Amino acid sequence: MNERETLKINERGHLSIGGADCVDLAKQFGTPLYVFDEAYIRNMMRIYRDTLAKKYKGKGLVLYASKAFSCKAIYRIADEENIGVDVVSGGELYTALQAGFPAEKIYMHGNNKLDYEIGEALDAGIGCIVADAYSEIDKIDAEAKKRGIVQNILLRINPGVEAHTHAFVQTATTDSKFGFSIADGTAEAVTAYALEKKNLHLQGYHCHIGSQIFEKQSFVIAVEKCMEFSANMKERFDFTVETLNLGGGYGVWYTDEDRKIPANGYAEYLEALIDEVHKKAEEKQLPLPYLLIEPGRSIVGEAGITLYTVGAIKDIPGVKKYLAVDGGMFDNPRYALYQSKYTPVLANRANQEPTEIVTIAGKCCESGDLIAVNVNLPKAETGDLLAILSTGAYNYSMAMNYNRNMIPPCVLVNEGVAEYIVRPQSYEDIVRNDIIPNRLQKKSK
Ligand code: LLP
Predict the structure, then answer these.
(1) CATH 3.40.50.150 holds for 109-295
(2) For the chain, which residues make up each domain, given as ranges?
(3) Which residues are catalytic?
């Protein structure tokens, strides 16, 4: 089992998270349940924030990539920790604003921002929009003009780095829907285009090479390429890059096939990027840019677990033993999407040794609705409590109502005490937007 400070086996032999006993949590809130440890989240935010403040000679800001887990409470925590956020849709922007998050510390992403999303961003006065298309540049410029303002933008560039991760979460290879490529000259051309816009202030560049990446070298090469490109743009257009946003993507532990990075090990990733920025700035005689990073998964991923109750058990002799739980792909679609691996723990008997190999299945009408395939577990019975570890990122945020299942609630544990930060859905919520047109209304006979 992963020995993170947030997870322990307590004197009752139960799994605990952030000091809260999982069996008690399940009794209090029911299952399925997403549980987050607040201390872990804050600690990760501080590690990035303090490393940037201490090690980087220029100024900078950590942006929490809120697509990893978005709800009002997380924006409050990010605000209290004095970091910024990145949002990627009108919905995330709205949530952040509803939580009172300061607009100037919000950066907006997206490869196809909709007109109304751009309008909402400008109305809110958000700090910066990361443009990723010519049409967007035109639109932001026009909308800024209408409002009599000059909007800060960054351009998303693609440095062409192949990071070792699942193809679906690689974003900086030549064939990508994201970013203007440095290699084929489009990044240079779009720089010239954006610099001409009267109502835009081009602050610099953004790049994000992918997600769940462990090799420092991939990040360092991306920095090198962005700094070299910045130097070329200085030469070419006398354009000085004020801001460089290096994206997120640092990997987290899901199973023992992954490296276990202790919380402060992430400081080393950031230091490696900072060293490269310092080095290149000196070499190319560039002023140090305002530096942004956008970690998402590494802030919330290992801070969260999902609790399920074991239901039906199907043992197919010589084939597989399935344990079905009361959740599934509707609360965690990551196996269905990426064949992601997870570590289960029998939370009510966490001190027992594994004795069998099982597959954890969900309750959706779909054979691929699996959470963890061929994993070791002590012998589990119907009614046992199962925890899936490292589900804090891209689980709740990607949850859905498939089969009209209800998305589980989220609780936040603080010093052993848990409270809702996202309340449970109800059947009411499920039918809230349904309409029966008059002609289909049931006629009384
Ligand atoms: N910045 C940008 C522009 C991004 O696109 C992303 C992630 C991040 C920052 C944060 O990356 P992180 O630190 O969380 O790796 N649904 C997938 C992950 C998609 C990542 C999308 N972009 C999954 O479940 O693995």
Answers:
(1) no
(2) 7-36+304-431, 109-295
(3) 365
